[in-house]
Amino acid sequence: MSSSSSALPISSPELTVALSAVLRASLATTQIFKTIPSSLTKSDKSPVTLGDFAAQAIVNTLIAKYFPDDGIVAEEEASALREDEQLRGKVGELVKMALEKDEQSLTGTKESELPSGSKKWSAEDWEQSDRFLSALDRGNFNGGPSGRFWALDPIDGTKGFLRGGQYAICLALVENGEPILACMACPNLPYAVSDEKPKEGDRSGVRGDGSVFIAVKGKGAFHRSIAPPSAAFEPIKMNSLSGGLSSASFCESVEAGHSSQGTNARIAELLGISSPPVRMDSQAKYASVARGDGDIYLRLPVGDGSYVEKIWDHAAGALLCEEAGGSVSDCSGKRLDFGKGRTLSANKGVVVALKGRHTEVVEAVKKALIEEGRGNLLGEQK
Ligand SMILES: Nc1ncnc2c1ncn2[C@@H]1O[C@H](COP(=O)(O)O)[C@@H](O)[C@H]1OP(=O)(O)O
Ligand SMILES: [Mg+2]
Ligand SMILES: [Mg+2]
Ligand SMILES: [Mg+2]
């Protein structure tokens, strides 16, 4: 594996920029996390905070600077900020703070190791609301099956962020419908095994440092502590489950409305798993399973399965797990198709397990859904 950058185990201009982008975004979100962030409610009734807006503006600004021809499929858009001068001002300050931070002291990468940008960025430019709002709105790309684009969730797990739980800044590069590069910052997920997770609602954040994860298709998955910048990336692998599936622990959402906890309990029973689920917000679940803190991630649809998952909620996490030795599918065992546009419209639910154990887990998922009379969620393979 070649290494031109002192900070990264894989030489890739896209990865160098992605790491800078998510670490800058996490500077803004950790600052807001310390206070109880106020939130707005979007048209789908889900919350959004100034952290979500700032993180998206920061990441999009860097992608626009270094890869100006790339589309971005991102969750948020700027209309609420256009109508609210005070909120706009606060977000603008966070964006400026994060973009001004010295590269080497943040990522460990020398400025000279970054690719040449389309034009020299100036912090002052981004204070002007027009440019900052248009950076945010670059996230409106529609995606699709061919070519490349970025998928961004600026804060994944906004409900967790508001509750004082886990959240993640999730960025992936998708090419021809498949994630090929992932970078995920989990500011509240302790890097050191000895560091306890903070209690939910503890706004002082993680004891020790949070974690940042990277993966490149075919080149593996890695993590390091978010700080200090000199920290080296270490390879991660899923657990080998040598004790069999019954020894596995599984992760699920905290939010009962986001996935079917009752179905998960039945699947655990079918697999002989007796340990209770680990509930966690956001794609930190994928990251935890990828590095062996847990073994299985189940996200089965609730009710009639009418909710359609968004690509930014899975692209980075799915690649992390695959590169750490896992298989990622929907509840019928089909691979997730990131080339359908902004949503995973060809898939229902998500099942993540070690490659050699995944089929067995999917069989249990199918059995549980059929028992519940929800075999229709398995599509043609029912
Ligand atoms: N009704 C829903 N069903 C499933 N997922 C949802 C729903 N509403 C929002 N989400 C998304 O689920 C993810 C949180 O999942 P989890 O419950 O695993 O933490 C988030 O990406 C959230 O988006 P957001 O990025 O806005 O937080
Ligand atoms: Mg999300
Ligand atoms: Mg989000
Ligand atoms: Mg959201």
Order of strands across the biggest sheet?
3-4-5-6-7-8-9
- CA distance, first residue to last residue: 43 Å
Number of helices in the DSSP assignment:
12
* Helicity range: 25-40%
Overall morphology: globular
Give the CATH topology of the largest domain: Fructose-1,6-Bisphosphatase, Chain A, domain 1
Bound molecules: adenosine-2'-5'-diphosphate, magnesium ion
Organism: Pseudomicrostroma glucosiphilum
Binding site for Mg(2+): 75, 153, 155-156, 313
GO molecular function, one term: 3'(2'),5'-bisphosphate nucleotidase activity
EC number: 3.1.3.7
How would you characterize the overall build of this protein?
The protein has 382 residues and is an alpha+beta fold. The chain has 2 domains: 13-235, 2-Layer Sandwich (Fructose-1,6-Bisphosphatase, Chain A, domain 1), CATH 3.30.540.10; 245-381, D-Maltodextrin-Binding Protein, domain 2 (3-Layer(aba) Sandwich). The protein is 32% helix and 18% strand. It has helices spanning 13-33, 50-66, 79-82, 85-100, 103-107, 123-127, 129-137, 158-163, 261-270, 284-290, 315-323, 358-371, and strands spanning 39-41, 47-49, 71-74, 148-156, 168-175, 178-186, 211-216, 220-225, 234-235, 250-252, 278-279, 296-299, 326-329, 350-354. The chain has a 7-stranded mixed beta sheet. The protein has a 5-stranded mixed beta sheet with strand order 11-10-12-14-13, with helices on both faces. Strand 1 (39-41) and strand 2 form a beta hairpin. Helix 10 (284-290) packs parallel to helix 11. The protein is globular. Bound molecules: adenosine-2'-5'-diphosphate (A2P) and magnesium ion (3 copies). One magnesium ion (MG) is lined by residues 52, 75, 153, 155-156, 158.
